[in-house]
Amino acid sequence: MASAGGNGEEDARKVVLGVIGGSGLLKSAMFAPETMKEEVVETEAGFGKIKLMRKELNEELDIVFAQRHACDVEKDYSPPHLVNFRGLLSAMKQVGVNAILAVCSVGSMRHHIGMGALVLPDDFFCPQHILTTFDDARGHNVPGFNDALRTEILTALFRSGERPLDGGVYVNSNGPRFETKAEIRFMSQCGEIIGMTGAHEATLAKELGIPYAMLAIVDNMANGIGPQLTLEEFFAVQHKNQPKIENAVHVVLNHFKAYPEVLLSLDGDGADASADDKAPSTPASPKEVCDEVVHAKSVVTVDAEERVLENHAVAIKDGKIVDILPSHDADVKYGAFSSTTTKVVRLPDSVLMPGLINAHTHTPMVFMRGFSDDLPLDKWLTEKIWPTEVRTVSKDFVRDGSRLACAEFIRGGVTCFSDMYFFPESTAEIIEETGIRGFPGSIVIGFPSNYAQGPAEYLEKGRKMIEDYSGRTDRLKFCVAPHSTYAVSEEDLIKAHKMAREFNLPFHTHLHETEREVDDSERGDRSSSFCHQCDKKCRPLRNLLDNGIVDEHFVAAHMVHIKDDEIKEYAAAGAHVVHCPTSNLKLASGFCPVQKIVDAGINVAIGTDGASSNNSLDMFQEMKLAAIMAKGVAKEPCAIPATQALRMATINGAKALGIADQVGSLEVGKQADMIAVDLSDLSCLPTYHVVSHLVYACNRHQVSDVWVQGKCLMRSRQLLTIDAGKLRRVAEKWQAIIAEVDSNHDGTYQ
């Protein structure tokens, strides 16, 4: 054993992190006595002998651990009100501790801070007698936790995927007993969590100039806040929370192991603790088990009743939603960390809602973002896009572009998309790889490409793709996607429709996007690139209706130029429309009469179109624009209200794709395709109506977490299935290739 002040000159050069915890941490492999060196420190201020444990993490960092209830050499155990705080903190100072991480068990005085929640309080309230090291003028200071140290700990935890509560007031009670209900009613006016030791440690650490921060875990709902509090339940929950707090401490230690110099740049701060250390020999089993429970401030269901549920949780098992219930009930029903197989995510400032469905896009065209702006559709396609595609598009182009687009989708809250592009098999590969849900389109177009030489080969390859991928994953389905009536012959459109019906797939095409497309077809001007490829002089929709192609599986993107009588026929056929407002405006295609279409009973979804014509894949932008543009076109402020716009971006997209029984709303039995949107930003305060904010105030950068089929694809803005670091280099490579092709091509695409 060593005494007094440290381990010699070699250790004096090291950074030292102090860790104060209860006996639970001592049971952890990280702090096992056989892996640490015991030091007994004779405190210079006369506060007795203190037992510390030292361990070398690497050449630059040591940790010094103290079990607060057993640090006094003269006692086997000290209850909270008798812990030798002055001796403990003085000993930490003497051995050269640069900062202190205090790990504490606390009770929650807020329903939304449930059992198992990690909390890093930013202030404390102590109605008890406060200790001081000096009993003289040196005790004058401004107390508090160290903000810089808190930030480092929060950063480490957020990067690891944990979602600790940032901030809150820790209330210090006296102990050793729990508080009465009356005491909790009083103290809950002063703070969010309650413990018995933290304020004393924080105060003494501040006096001694040691930066101090508390990492607390909720092991019980305070007396009167939840169900009847019992010691047995407290011990059981504390025992079951042990793996979570151990993991959090492990994450923080690894962070400082990598960046020990951070601890030398701090200035000084405080902590908390647990009431008792014993745990039952046989922990209680949870009543029910699921894979994950996600708690949120609000749950926007987008169900038939359009419910918005406050302080609710969504329980997930085997990729499906098995429960939607109040957060407190979820803690009781699912045990709140009573099983190591159940993950609990708490998002106290966020809204949970269905994932957005981008019902019309061209994913690989992200590589043409900003490539050709400020042109009408005909010139944009025939002079820039098609000539470049003929010379550029390949399997690798589509694979790389789809991966970049899927990263943008996920970060923007899109969980499902319907695509139309060449080499759809490559897009299918990326859907499987990234975990998103998608409908690659079996493309058909009238001119040859690197993918196929003509319509027959397009259809043949599409059939093979659909058959090869059949049943591989529920997330991957297909649509039959002939480009348009002006790029595909009448005969081949009929063949494509027959194949769609054979496989029971959506029929996805562009229709009535521009006036020229409609007018040239009515005149029968076959010299025009935008006249439909049939001998009839009629509007394109008329010919599709006459051929029986327009049915309940028919999905038309755009439909900007549609007449009132056509709307009635289209509605009678049960077909769907995908509204792409940004692309239509940017290409000056016109204004889709969305309100008229909706009033006729037609299902309207929303799409971004490709990033080449939109410049982004932002479905939040499309929702807002769809709502406000409809009001201007209809000259009616009630046109497309926020609730309708949200449905268009979620459940209506699912209806168009034939999967509304699986996704598009948050309902028990459906797949857990959902996103969390953080409303803590100042731009979303105050919040009177959550759905209004989602449509009119929020942006895609507020999406924090994304799940598809119960699997988390993004946590705390960090992509979990895509290496974002590689995407920039890949995009730069394709930018150079496209720029070179553009500078050399002769303007032809056939």
From TrEMBL:
Keyword Zinc: yes
Occurrences of domain Nucleoside phosphorylase (ranges): 79-249
GO biological process: purine ribonucleoside salvage
GO molecular function list: deaminase activity; hydrolase activity, acting on carbon-nitrogen (but not peptide) bonds, in cyclic amidines; metal ion binding; S-methyl-5-thioadenosine phosphorylase activity
Keywords of this entry: Glycosyltransferase, Hydrolase, Metal-binding, Purine salvage, Transferase, Zinc
Residue span(s) of domain Amidohydrolase-related: 351-711
Keyword Glycosyltransferase annotated: yes
Record's protein name: S-methyl-5'-thioadenosine phosphorylase
Lineage: Eukaryota, Sar, Stramenopiles, Bigyra, Labyrinthulomycetes
